[in-house]
Amino acid sequence: xxxxxxxxxxxxxxxxxxxxxxxxxxxxxxxxxxxxxxxxxxxxxxxxxxxxxxxxxxxxxxxxxxxxxxxxxxxxxxxxxxxxxxxxxxxxxxxxxxxxxxxxxxxxxxxxxxxxxxxxxxxxxxxxxxxxxxxxxxxxxxxxxxxxxxxxxxxxxxxxxxxxxxxxxxxxxxxxxxxxxxxxxxxxxxxxxxxxxxxxxxxxxxxxxxxxxxxxxxxxxxxxxxxxxxxxxxxxxxxxxxxxxxxxxxxxxxxxxxxxxxxxxxxxxxxxxxxxxxxxxxxxxxxxxxxxxxxxxxxxxxxxxxxxxxxxxxxxxxxxxxxxxxxxxxxxxxxxxxxxxxxxxxxxxxxxxxxxxxxxxxxxxxxxxxxxxxxxxxxxxxxxxxxxxxxxxxxxxxxxxxxxxxxxxxxxxxxxxxxxxxxxxxxxxxxxxxxxxxxxxxxxxxxxxxxxxxxxxxxxxxxxxxxxxxxxxxxxxxxxxxxxxxxxxxxxxxxxxxxxxxxxxxxxxxxxxxxxxxxxxxxxxxxxxxxxxxxxxxxxxxxxxxxxxxxxxxxxxxxxxxxxxxxxxxxxxxxxxxxxxxxxxxxxxxxxxxxxxxxxxxxxxxxxxxxxxxxxxxxxxxxxxxxxxxxxxxxxxxxxxxxxxxxxxxxxxxxxxxxxxxxxxxxxxxxxxxxxxxxxxxxxxxxxxxxxxxxxxxxxxxxxxxxxxxxxxxxxxxxxxxxxxxxxxxxxxxxxxxxxxxxxxxxxxxxxxxxxx
Length: 757
Description:
This protein is α+β, with helices and mostly antiparallel strands and 757 residues long. Among the domains are: 1-60; 180-276, no CATH class; 280-469, Rossmann fold; 495-637, no CATH class. The chain is 29% helix and 26% strand. The chain has a six-stranded antiparallel β-barrel. Helix 8 packs parallel to helix 14 and helix 16 (511-523) crosses helix 19 (629-642). The longest helix has 59 residues, at 2-60.
């Protein structure tokens, strides 16, 4: 039995032994597989991390590193760059702490350039200087704390005067003239709106408005009917201030106690007109110059041939067909004569036919009577339109030869009486710009000086944008938050590129060239062909590219390739100091007209010091054969524009005069090429170029501006927020300094006036 047991055990063990060995072998294989999978997962994770790090790094290479010389003064504040670095003040902002004292002024007064309130009394250093207080003392006069002293300050503005009583902060108060469509269109308002703002408030105030007696009489408004109103931008309604007093010198004054927008208006009509504006009813009269100077020399030998292809009619038609809402149009043609082709009519087909009938009228050879045309155009508005929104758009190409004796004052008075805003457009160079600008500015309109008829055809989008409601919701939260001061009508989704910023062998970033080209495309000023040397030339001849179409419609096959994204072709297992392009991609890209270039790239722990990237070769005919003539021409055009990066005049936006220059450019419907400069934690400064397309101002705080920009490095539009502070001169407010933030960075803004010559 014992032997059998033993024998049985021996037999069973012989069966179990191979099974155990098999299980052990399977376990080893499983462990090996798991180990391989773990190692592979680790490699994949490492590769993903490296890919992620590179993708974060690569877009930043589109920002240009700026050389900041020690002996230069980048922000023009009177302090050298080296001294700013030592004092830890900003190299790019003249007023580091935004207190109204530039960094050099801070040295004069002995105040802290990094602390807006050096003595800690709640008053900014600059405000204390304006109030004749010591910014380094809590009690300047030795008796009363600076923060508790009471002052009286007068601020004059074009239509009147403000007197404020309060603490020292009233020396930082501002009075700003606004240009708002909702107020300009109100027949019951007889002055421009002015916003009074004092940070921290004031104890009491007195507001005085002067008024034009003649304009009031034209509008049927008596002195007894006048009152000062506070305008609410949220409801667009007016509230009456009580206690108005009339003086003998055509002025009205009253007391007020809070920040806000104030106007002088008529108690009888102001509320009714506000309701009419809200209804959306608008009457637009287009006055179109048809003088001989528009026509070919074959018709008039002395003609300037300013619009031989009737672009003025294309503009008018585009405007009428594109403007939405409850609108009636009237059309008139004028030379020294005046012809009404269509009375106020809501049927757009009838209006368009009236516009096109100008083609058959033939030119007028007897001069251009601008003033007479405006007066007759104004007469077309009657009592039925008085409480509605009324607009005249006048287009002319010549200096007025009016002999009827009408003056600017006559036009402005009648426009105010009829509740009409006048927009003026000039074409060509022989123009009385001053007259047209004054007519527009005095009636709440805009003036658009254009050099060529081709630009005119696309102006309708800018004009429509300027006529839209200018109280807007900037952050799309359902509540208005900004006034639109100027808007060129540039829409990145329509007027921008269909592709983003990219590199070439010759340029690490092409943002300047793309921004310049986008600006000129929008203005209608891109020449079909340009040549300034073999490597600085392009031509759209022989392509399907048309500068008359939106830039967004230009689709390049080159920019659809996967080689625009290094993640698709880099070998993140590369050994050595170079992160390399996969060999098959390098060969295929070269055959397609691409180049391999090297950029600095130091990824810790990898040993890499540089990386290879693929870029289109703008000089290669292969691009044209492998892709299309469109691709080749457009890339060369961008390169040509990009070579202008360091040419032309420019100015740093750091004063009221600088901002006014920006406003004047935007008022003409021209976006502004702008360089954004900022400093990083590594101590270096970087820049990129964007297109400033619109200027807005905060609804509550007139010291906060918002600039809408087009950035070819981003898919969506961006906003620069700019703050102003009274700048200290010789004890009185003469100017403002400006500080800006973009993408959570403090930045300086340089406006470039470069043109393609």
